[in-house]
Amino acid sequence: MKPEDLVVTDLHGKIVEGSLRPSSDLPTHVILYREFASIGGVAHTHSRAATSWAQAQREIPCFGTTHADYFHGPIPVTKPLSPAQIRHRLRSQYRPCHRSTICKTRPIASARRARRRHAPFCWGATPTEAAHVAVIVEEIAAMASQNACG
User: Fold this and answer.
1) What global pTM score does this model have?
2) What is the mean pLDDT of residues 17-28?
3) Are the C-beta atoms of residues 28 and 98 closer than 8 Å to each other?
4) Average pLDDT for residues 34-51, to the nearest whole number?
């Protein structure tokens, strides 16, 4: 991916800059930015280990201090989407699924969720912080996979 591949949109999903089509995950990005003013960057990856946990529909358990140093408790997955929500991908249908599972009080303190059957979304006060959280989530997911397998 190169900088010229990026598409910039406003908070309603309208393209502001770029000639490519935005990601199909744009509704989730828009919801995070619109609902939580403290979020200044979102990193959505399809990294191997973290995506494996999300696609297995399993939260990433805390097996040790490396995980606990960054996150308090397991890294959760979102509630399941209904077949209609998956088919239509309407903003109004995304909102209850994501908002209710993201963070009730402090989104920056929570900073990560794995979208069920999909992949992780990580966020922070800046894009750099969001990318850093994504790297940490991937490493923790890889470590948890090794621990879970014995």
Assistant:
1) 0.76
2) 88
3) yes
4) 88
